[in-house]
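Before relying on records like the one below, remember that each one covers exactly one chain. Contacts with other chains, cofactors or solvent are not represented anywhere in the record.
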Amino acid sequence: MDTHEDKQFLENLVKALVDHPDSVGINRTVDEMGVLLTLDIHADDMGKIIGRSGNTAKAIRTLLRVVGMKNDARVNLKINEPEGGKGMNREMSDAMREDNPSVAETKSLDQAIDDLKI
């Protein structure tokens, strides 16, 4: 993925959701496991990105997988807890842990799109 389409997609998406878009930072690394996008956000925006029961974070990860499949890359998201954050409850912690490649299942494009349907 030479154009870093995944990073630009994540940046546009997150900045549209948060109250402090200037605090959004994304680091992109590539290794044998695929692409890892590490997201840093303002402490006050953490709840908006994680969502109730981690649903927003799950949806963002699903969309990133779709973007990655389009470019034959496995894309994972790690959300860093901001300094001064309020600490994570169990639901948030579990939702953030889902980016672990050894636990995450690989889905076909059709499965990922079906997950997005309401």
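The helical segments are 5-17, 46-50, 55-70, 90-97, 109-116.
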